[in-house]
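Contributing new records

If you add data, match the layout below exactly. Sequence lines come first and carry their own label; structure lines follow with theirs. Keep one chain per record. Anything else will be rejected by the validation script.
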Amino acid sequence: MAAVEVVRIEAGGIVRLPPNLLEFVGFEPGEEVEARPGAGRLVLKKKDSIIKKLRGRLKLDQETAEEIIFAPELEYEAF
């Protein structure tokens, strides 16, 4: 388990996390994460891709699958 790290909340709500902590939990630069409030805490979780969510649930031809994956109107839809 990684050591506890103390960080400061900066103006605008910016929290800079130490690279060794991010590496320990498997987060990579540029990766999107979900931030969820908890009881006195903030939980960060890797964002699931739509591909992972749909894998094994749909049987589509390649063209239709790509059309769904790259549809801009689905980018921010909740599934």
